[in-house]
Please model this.
Amino acid sequence: MPRGAAADRELVGRAFTHVEDAVYLGVGLLLAASAIALLVVSGITFVRSVLEGVLAARVVGLLDQVLLVFMIVEILYTVQVSFREHALIPEPFLIVGLIAGIRRVLLRRRAPGAAAEKA
Model:
């Protein structure tokens, strides 16, 4: 018994939804692993800096890493919402933009010559 065009569209739509969910899952796992790895590295760097007595010299770099973790977590939240609701919301992107702006200011303060070359 041949199916109608509407049933075929429904089947294709469900297949694309499953593919979209698989991609969101993969991206979410990569973002989560990246955030955890960067957080561990930042923690190790913090402890070493305290033990070596050079925390003041490395605080901007550590803050930069922590802000990057926040950005990754906000992007992960966006992926989570997109996975659950199949819709994009703008607020996490605004937060990521704000954090990125703060990071840029920090990097310019840390190395004015290097930041000017990147811009």
In short: The two ends are 63 Å apart (CA to CA).
